[in-house]
Structures are given as structure tokens and as C-alpha cells.
Amino acid sequence: MGAHPTAAAPPRPSSLLGGPAGVITVGILLAIAVLLPVLNLAVPPSSALHVPTWALALVGKYLCYALLALSIDLIWGYCGILSLGHGAFFALGGYAMGMHLMREIGPRGVYKNPELPDFMVFLNWQELPWYWHGFDSFAFACLMVVLVPGLLAFVFGWFAFRSRVTGVYLSIISQAMTFAFMLAFFRNDMGFGGNNGLTDFKDVLGFDLQADTTRAALLALSALAVAAAFVVCRFIVTSRLGKVLIAVRDAESRVRFLGYPVASYKLFVFTVSGVMAGIAGALYVPQVGIINPSEFAPANSIEIVIWVAVGGRGTLYGAILGAFAVNYAKSFLTGAIPELWLFALGALFIGVTLFLPKGICGSLPRLRGRRRPPPETTAVARGPLADVPGAQP
């Protein structure tokens, strides 16, 4: 008699997180969420272990960038969708949170108007625009942070993927989208502050944004959000859905020929990615203190792709590392060599492209002497749909 099939063992946490590297990534993020606030609030400033408040704000900003980089790696590294317009989703999430923070100011503004933000009073607006209503509620603002970028990603993806727009054409269209948003938000009559954007925030949920405790809480929340997003992304890419996404990346025509609704798979992951970018923008705004149309600039979206490329496309933790590494280098070089920092940053990108074409994390196995097929060919080599029911080789 043949051997009876046995029930599959439940996945171990380490396998769900992508092995030791994923466990280490989540562990570091959780450590940041706990240790940095403690070292800032509980350790006296005279101690060498004290973390200053400005460092909390800087790390918090980097964490928001890491979440944004994860959203790009999910679609580019695992589905082959190169978006050069994700800055639009990031900025829309930021504006949704910024609108709530502006409503929270109330009569404490320069013009003491309890209903209209200062920039509207300055521009002689007589009443609050209809699309500002509801943002006095934090719950409504959080809903808009998810809904607005998600809806935009869904609509954009529906038209693009149903029309089978791929490759460089999709990249150009997505870049045109964020450029159009930038031009629109620069206009004063749009009701979003024009060139100056939204700023001068006072508090969130009654907590002073300038207080150390609030900044520590925002940093911890950002770190937890990145950890949660990493787990969600890892769950997606290691599931049967993820196998189809990788197959779409490596052989889209073959997947479509096998009968899979490719457009639906791409639309789902693109919408999830847009929501992640919007959440990153919402966490970014209260920590930085401003949101303006420059966040829509196409150059910002290109820079996000560079973070992922430097860290290692198709690794997830590489995207987090790339966001931290590139932005830290940018912060350091702007202070060390302000006249030449752009050239130094450009040399860094060129060096990584020439000597580490798969990014830092993607090149580690080769640097350690291990031989294994690269992520781009692994799925094709073993059959990208080998574990998906109904697929034939």
C-alpha cells in the first residue's frame, strides 16, 4: 500500500518571516519601538546612552521611508510593476492626516478663526470646502488615509492593467499621474495651502506634537507599522497568491495563457501597495511637521525606487535597509560636504549599480561565496506555478 498523505505542518514563524533575516528584521524594528523611546525618556541627557529628541524625529522619518520602500518592493520586486508615481499615494495619505491636524488647531491659529485654517483666512475664503468636513474626527481622517490612496491605486491600476499597460509605459504613466497631482496641489484655489502646504500643527489627539513623549510614541508607532507591513508583505509573497505574482513577474504571458486573471492579481497587490504608501505618509506628517506639494514631485518617486534597488529588490528587508542607508547617507553628506553631496550620492548609486547589481541584500550570498540562483530566475527554474493548483508545466 502506498504511504498515506500526512497533514502539512503549520508554518513556523521563522519561515513566515523569510528565515533568519526576516526574524532579525522584525526583531530590530521591535527593539527600535521599545529601546529608543526608553533611552530618550528614561535616561538623563547627561548619560552617554541618552537618545536626543532630534534623533527620535530623524529615525521616525526614516521608518516612514522604510514603509514606503516596502510598498514599492512588494510590487516591483515580486510582481515586476515598476511604479514611478508612488509619491502620489504617500502625499495623499500625508495630506489626509495634515487636514485633521489643521482642524485640530481651531482658534489657536494666527487669525483665531475656529473654523477656517489660517491659509484660508489669508486667502479670503468664506467657508470651509465640503471636502474638509469630517476631518475634525481622527477616525474619519484615518479612514481617508487608507481609502483615498487605496481608491486612487485601484482606479489607476484598473485602467492600466485592464489595458495591459506594462513596463516602461506604466512607469511613465504613473510618473505623469504624480506630476499632475503636484501641479494641481500647487494651486491656491484647490484648498490645500498651495505652495506652502499644511503646517504649524499643534497636537494630535490632545497630545502636544513637540513633547518628547509624543515624538517617542510616534516613533514606536512607526516602527510597529513597518514591522506589521513586513509581516503582511511576507505573508503575501510566501502564499499561493505570491507564487502567482512571482510567475507574473517572470512570465506574464505564460500565466495569462494558463488562465489566471493576471490583471486582477496585479490590481490587488498594487492597491495594497498604495494603501501602505498612504499610511507611511500619514505617519510622516506629524513627525516632520509639514506637508506640501513638493512631496508629489516625480523625483521623489524615483528616489524611492533607488532605495529599493540599493537595498536589494525582491527581499523586503533589503528595501528597509536601503531606505535607511540612502537617507542616512543623504543626511550625512548634506552636512559634511554640502557643495558636493549630490555628486557623492550619485557616485554611491553608480558604485552599487556596478559592483552590487542585485543590491546590498541581494548580493550577500554571492559575497559570502554561496551559489544559488538569483530571485529573478528562481521561479522560472522550478516552475513559477509549481505549487499552485490547476497549473500545468
Any overview of this molecule?
Helices cover 66% and strands 2% of the residues. The protein has one domain. With 393 residues, the protein is mainly α.
Present the secondary structure layout.
Layout: H1 13-16, H2 20-41, H3 53-79, H4 86-105, H5 118-122, H6 138-162, H7 167-185, E1 198-199, E2 203-204, E3 207-208, H8 212-238, H9 240-257, H10 262-288, E4 290-291, H11 298-311, H12 317-336, H13 341-355, H14 359-367, H15 375-382
Antiparallel strand pairs: 1-4, 2-3
Structural class category: mainly alpha
Could you state the order of secondary-structure elements as H and E? Answer: HHHHHHHEEEHHHEHHHHH
Task: Using the alpha-carbon principal axes, give the shape.
Answer: globular
The helix content, as a percent range, equals 55-70%
* Poorly predicted runs of 5 or more residues: 1-10, 377-382
Strand order of the largest sheet: 1-4
Q: Looking at the chains present, what oligomeric state does this protein adopt?
A: single chain
| Average residue-wise pLDDT | 88
Largest sheet, described in full? 2 strands, antiparallel
End-to-end Cα distance, whole Å, is 29 Å
Give the total of domains: 1
Spatial extent as radius of gyration: 22 Å
Strand portion = under 5%
Provide a count of the helices.
15
Strand count: 4
